[in-house]
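Final paragraph of the annual report: two paired records, presented back to back.
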Amino acid sequence: MNKRYLRQMEVSEIGMGCMGFSHGYGKIPEREYSIRAIQEAYAYGCTFFDTAEVYGDVLYYPGHNEQIVGEAVADFRKDIVLATKFHFRNEEVENGGAVYDIIRKHLENSMKNLRTDYIDLYYLHRVNTLVPVEDVAQAMGRLISEGLIRGWGLSQVSGETLKAADKITPVSAVQNLYNMLERDCETDIFPYCVEQGIGVVPFSPIASGFLSGKITVDTQFSLVDDVRNWVPQLSRENIAANQPVLDILNHYAAEKGASSAQISLAWMLHKYPNVVPIPGSKNRERILENLGAWEVTLTDAEFEQLEAALNACQIHGHRGHVETEQKGFGRRQP
């Protein structure tokens, strides 16, 4: 697979979001299935794996997803870029804990779960307004100097917050919501990140599965632990209203002999040199299909035509990339 850079770190140009093995899409697979799926993704050429300390803690226990990923990648740990995330619990901050000490404790727990003595990319999962982002950046710089992390990132942030943090300790990557239906990042995040060499790592790059074309107005989501129940584009009325986007994708998919999901990923790969999407799925076939998007190439003319067609579409439903945290952490958000 082709390679890209998250500032200083080389990764496969498509990564793997591992959340679905513990949380977010209803019933999870058997542990061994999840481990084999991650290993097959690596065998295919994926070298970038994403998890978080909270994935799985709602129905299972803290670190559930990290432990699965850690076991899966143990034999090739040194050959991949491993990313995980932490968040501040309000009580940690309100009790007067030092920012560095709080982050260090979270990091040590994640390293134990992941069976590693360093993390390649360590994200602040959501901004907490009780903690100045500049203080977080200083602590991350210290962790980098100590060799415990190679780089750090921010998730679901504004351009203003990113710039403030980047001035203190250079940011390696921003993990924000970005796909054909959610393009807020094109205004402030991408221009700054391209200029500074910061990677942009879109979560939900296939719009929670909508852009695959496999979700219809008749699709029933699990009532237990399925984030798709609150994704605006996946309401019955918005699935129908956004059909023109799928029609565009289906046209290019037919021409390219690809899936619509692959076309949506190829679109962003063509558009930005620093974008590294991390499609997530709990299904092995979908995982390999998504990774296969690196082989789907759009010509400049095809891209311009596709972009013009998308720009002419009115999008129904919007999640946005604003800092949703304020005080506390939305535990059910990816």
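The closing record of the year follows.
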Amino acid sequence: MSRVMVTGAGGYIGTVLTPMLLDAGYDVRAVDRFFFGRDLLVPHSNLEVVIEDSRRLAAEHFEGVDAVIDLAAISNDPSGELFREATLAINHESRVRSARLSKAAGARRYILPSSCSVYGFQEEGVIADETASPNPLTTYAIANERAERGVLDFADEAFCVVVLRQATVFGLSPRMRFDLAINGMTYGAWRTGKLPLMRDGTQWRPMIHVRDTARAQIFVLESAAEQVNGGIFNVGSRAETWQIGPLGALVAASVPGDAEIEWYGDPDKRSYRVSFDRIEALGYRAEWTAADGVAEICEALQAGTVDRTPQTITLDWYRELVRWHRRIHDVELHGGIVDI
């Protein structure tokens, strides 16, 4: 497979995955609305950029594509709750539609990066494997679980479909996010010496570095179809499965200077531990640790190459774009504002 379409290529994972695919020798068709900037993907002779909404993709967008990695999504739980209908349309319906269109266009493989959040709350002591019943608690998780079921229906001998349930992602990306657990903890501790943690710290979260989850997507892209077709794979590692309290303590101890934990909010009921035996049995291993992620983010903050801006907080940026759209709509006339 030489040409890979990546939807959501301008996002947190997409801006890491796309150059990794290019470095591996693939041609990449990068599809995105580019809400967070059109300059996040470095131009490359084998990179084709398509500015389009995943809900408006047509058959011609999939022509000549060998595989699709369908990252396009409204990201995180707060955004999913505020933009509920859009989240269901993008994270569920448009992904099923993209799987159908890619199959009809002759693509041979479709990969859906989903989320371990589909497991929701699990009973204490349970380590969920891919056979465990999903228990999605949020719109974001519900949409992912529906998309999983929808795209897997297309799997057959000629069309390989793979679902990856990603652990909570962390680490440095061109489309940086500070609304993810480790990233947000690191920024708060580095900037203010205060580390905000949602109570009560006993909740479990599996974590994975953004480069490791991109590596997993390339891994299943290149795996023999008979090993992965129709399969669901949790992506993460046992070593990087943390309770939030100890994880916060690690972050506080890893940033330069002194940092202390500040607890906030009601106890978070989302808690899950996950088995990664299935993908590891195929030979995949995560390589990056939480400590690695904290170190690289602190280094970038110290160097001034990254900072917490409105674009790095997904929900805040979506809200800002909506406000801008309303203001421009109110004053635009004859195709312009001052110049018409």
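The chain has a mean pLDDT of 95. This concludes the annual technical report; the extension proposal builds directly on these records.
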